Amino acid sequence: MMTLIKYIKAVLLIVLALMMNACVWVEDPNDLRQFVQQVRQAEAPPIKPLPEFKPYHSFVYEGASLRDPFQSLAQLSDTNEVAAEVVQNNENGLRPDSERPKSYLEEFALDSLKMVGTIGMSKQRWALIRDDKGEVHRVTSGDYMGLDFGQVVTVSNGFIELKEIVPNGRGGWMTRQRSIVMDDE
User: What is the pTM for the complete model shown?
Assistant: First the structure.
């Protein structure tokens, strides 16, 4: 039994010696220190700026005063009322001028036109409009553009206000305000 204990002690002594020797075999940490120092001395990459948020432009729905589109004209209480209403709406005097020669920008939908800038002298200001063909045109108050007989009312630094004449759904016409906002691209 004594030899077994001596044998175990000898094995443990050898294992302990190997473990102590393994600590000596660890690489020199100087290269690690040099790497950390190089990383600290290197310039940090620039932080990207926060994205610029485009302002929210609200939309005012002006069709609330019109008849319910899900109610047919036949469902209204009196058909004579409907006929009188249609005649009244047709006789309000508002209608597009069909005799007026159309301008070039009336060939395009307003959604395809982009405002890219403004120019002006004293009290006169023009908006620069790019069509979907990439051509830039100059418009001012009183000019027409868009498919719905849109007439430019105001030219401002950041937007154009238009007044369109559109069908009201009852056989007549009504005006609708639209705007084109400056394109930031």
Answer: 0.51
